[in-house]
Amino acid sequence: MPLHSIECAVRGYLLYLLGCTIFSDKSGSLVSVEYLQYLEDLDKVKDYAWGAAALVHLYRQLGIA
């Protein structure tokens, strides 16, 4: 399997993971494509502050509710 195909599969899985667990909403199945820009460079993904981003997202969702 070519490396590019593997990286695309990893990005797809990470997008699913982000949309369904960390940044979930009431739909439970929709994932915003805006998260794809953060998955472009897979070497930088581990350096992002995902906990802080999840906390901000939760506070925004509380404000909406």
Automatic annotation (TrEMBL):
InterPro entries: AminoTfrase-like_pln_mobile, MAIN-like. Pfam families: PMD (PF10536). This is Aminotransferase-like plant mobile domain-containing protein. Residues 5-64 form the Aminotransferase-like plant mobile domain. It comes from Acorus gramineus (Dwarf sweet flag). One of its GO terms (biological process) is meristem maintenance.
